[in-house]
Write a structure and sequence with these properties.
This protein is of the alpha/beta class. The chain contains 13 helices and 12 strands. Helix content is 42%, strand content 15%.
Length: 328
């Protein structure tokens, strides 16, 4: 991968960022990133466009983002740092999904996550975003995981999970980075009750949360109320919108599982779905949130760059026009 980017790209992207952030406001200190899954879906091969890393990074810079998640096929270490610096971008996060059964993390789960932490440190990134990997028996219950008969972690499974998360959190802190746990649809921690249990079982200073507002909607939660409930424990945010029609099809069983819903474009362009984006921003502004706001969409019907551009501009508008007036 060639690190160099055209000088005019950097000049224009900086100017665009300033324009999109014009007006400041309580969230002026937050950083705005995006997730390259739009171009190359990590989990579903048929949703990959085959776009090379250099092109994706050029597009992320061109569209006015401050940084991004580590994407599929991205370089590592110094090569990644050089590629980001050439575009005036930062590595916001590296995602780590722990393989699971009802009995807890699978053998090797911690080692796999520590390898993701290594990539974060090597790329001079900020946040290790940790979730549970998808499980077939939970994928078929996505969107209705709070109903009777849904497979759940055993008591020993919970204990083993909490131990692994604490070990990973301590390693992350020791490396000088931050960790945030991401409740995720189609996994053993999707619902509000499951998240509450994890929150109660883990040390707040070691295990903050990444609230993905789209996954939270799928799991039956209210993102605005939850941002206020958890408050400072939410240190990382994924902004993702949900198509209510596709969500209804998932909950009714018309769509077989979470993967089928993603293929049907469960997640849509920011501002086009059921998410109360302005309310989420207002809740974050109330406590002067200063972390990352990661615009994310797992798949789209149109070109990835168009969806990423829509998300960035919808967010810019929402930052100025929060319905509570808390965000300038």
């Amino acid at each position: 991968m060639t690190a160099a980017a055209a000088p005019e790209l950097v000049v224009r992207s900086r100017a665009l960022r300033e324009r999109l952030r014009a007006g400041g406001g309580p969230l002026a200190a937050a950083s705005i990133g995006t997730v390259p899954i739009l171009w190359n879906n990590v989990d579903i091969e048929e949703l990959r466009h085959g776009t090379d890393a250099a092109t994706i990074l050029d597009e992320i810079a061109r569209l006015g983002y401050d940084g991004c998640q580590l994407g599929l096929g991205f370089p590592e270490g110094q090569e990644l740092r050089d590629a980001l610096a050439a575009r005036d971008l930062r590595l916001a996060e590296v995602y780590a999904a722990l393989p699971m059964t009802t009995e807890g993390p699978s053998d090797g789960a911690l080692e796999m996550a520590l390898e993701r932490l290594r990539l974060l440190v090597a790329g001079d990134g900020d946040v290790l975003c940790v979730a549970l990997d998808g499980s077939p028996d939970r994928s078929v219950r996505a969107g209705r995981a709070n109903t009777e008969g849904t497979p759940a972690l055993t008591t020993d499974g919970w204990r083993r999970l909490v131990d692994v998360i604490h070990d990973l959190a301590r390693a992350t802190v020791a490396s000088g980075r931050r960790m945030a746990f991401h409740p995720h649809a189609g996994t053993f921690i999707e619902t509000a009750d499951e998240t509450d249990r994890l929150v109660a079982a883990t040390e707040p200073e070691l295990v903050p949360l990444c609230l993905d507002v789209g996954h939270w909607l799928v799991g039956g939660g209210d993102p605005v109320a939850t941002l206020r409930k958890y408050g400072e424990r939410v240190t990382h945010v994924h902004l993702k919108d949900v198509d209510p029609t596709v969500l209804a099809r998932l909950r009714s069983g018309e769509l077989a599982d979470f993967g089928a819903a993603v293929r049907a474009r469960l997640f849509t362009e920011l501002g086009a779905g059921a998410l109360n984006l302005e309310g989420c921003l207002a809740a974050l502004a109330e406590r002067d949130y200063r972390g990352w706001l990661m615009v994310e969409q797992d798949s789209g019907w149109g070109p990835p760059s168009e969806a990423a551009a829509i998300g960035r501009r919808v967010l810019a508008h929402a930052l100025r026009t929060s319905d509570r007036g808390a965000v300038a």
